[in-house]
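fyi for ur records
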Amino acid sequence: MNAFQTSLARPVTWLGCLLLMTFVSEAKISTGNPTLDVQLVWGTNDDASSDPNHKPLEAPLAKKLGMFKWKNYFTVKQQKVALAGDGAKKVRLSKRCEIDVKHLDGGRYEINVYGEGKHVRKITEKITKEDSLVIAGDDKNDCGWFILIREIK
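which gave:
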């Protein structure tokens, strides 16, 4: 190898190592443990919630729920849920509502919904920062409940 080839090989080798390190770092970031934003929301045609602790849902999210029949939406509870590994995590959203969340592969999640201790629904769906999941159901007094889930990390 002449001096020109040797001097050219060093930067190319360093560039290759740098690219490999970047690729490995990106792979670690994308396969990290996700964090979800989970909200329990109450839908009603009443102007105010019967519970003063409920706050009006943020306008962009309320607009997203505009396809449903209710005029007003209130946040009952909102929390961040950090998932570790592939184990399921229980999330209590109210006295009557609880979910189990399990991260699967490829951005998919398995969500089991429990109402008053009884299994109500199982959903397997892809959830991303852009594509949130909305789980909904009717309740008494012409009201409805919603569980909004989106990935934040």
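The longest strand covers residues 72-82. thats all i got for now
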